[in-house]
Amino acid sequence: xxxxxxxxxxxxxxxxxxxxxxxxxxxxxxxxxxxxxxxxxxxxxxxxxxxxxxxxxxxxxxxxxxxxxxxxxxxxxxxxxxxxxxxxxxxxxxxxxxxxxxxxxxxxxxxxxxxxxxxxxxxxxxxxxxxxxxxxxxxxxxxxxxxxxxxxxxxxxxxxxxxxxxxxxxxxxxxxxxxxxxxxxxxxxxxxxxxxxxxxxxxxxxxxxxxxxxxxxxxxxxxxxxxxxxxxxxxxxxxxxxxxxxxxxxxxxxxxxxxxxxx
Length: 263
Prior knowledge:
- By secondary structure, the chain is an alpha/beta fold.
- It has eleven helices and twelve strands.
- It folds into two domains: about 1-95 and about 230-260, 3-Layer(aba) Sandwich (Rossmann fold), CATH 3.40.50.10860; about 100-225, NAD(P)-binding Rossmann-like Domain (Rossmann fold), CATH 3.40.50.720.
- The protein is about 40% helix and about 25% strand.
- The chain has a six-stranded mixed beta sheet with strand order 2-1-3-5-6-4, sandwiched between helices. A six-stranded parallel beta sheet has the order 9-8-7-10-11-12, sandwiched between helices.
- Strand 5 and strand 6 (about 90-95) form a beta hairpin.
- The longest helix is centred in the last third of the chain and has 15 residues, at about 230-245.
């Protein structure tokens, strides 16, 4: 039997097993997808081998650690420096990033976006920044401290910290932090966030299936919002396709995955 997993911490909330198992069952494939909490990121690859996995997804906060440990990184993940999909090829583990394309698919329904503000500077922020840049969307990164902003600065993004930030109109505000996942925190100072939302059109939180304080505040400001469900769906479709060497049609995978996603 083929075994797949989601790696991260926490992972108890993840619906990835439901999504992938629904497709495995529909296609009558002998496989199973499980959750695995990883508290020591340096053990990602050894855990992958110990579990004899065919493939895995990586969620917060281990995407950059996964990038460092892969035997090879392919596609846009090389530019992002973060991996969310691991695929076994013989004895080697290949890293990919499907977050970037998954995110872009999820925001298409918003319509035209001129510029965006990303809150946070982790692996997910990198994926989103790179895909936005590839579509000529002017992007600013706002993070608590400057220590994690060098990646973005070296690639020409505007970078700000809470102390230096001066708000201006942004079409899209994106929370890539874990604020609101296990707590009721905001990704930045609440009053600052209110000021930002007053001049914005859309808000997106990569956290899904939870009314985070970020999204609740955005809704109170009459901003059109989305959580991370569709991003999760689309990145999952792309990841499943990579697990099986792009053997299946993407639309077929999405059609089989979506009902489980909407439960």
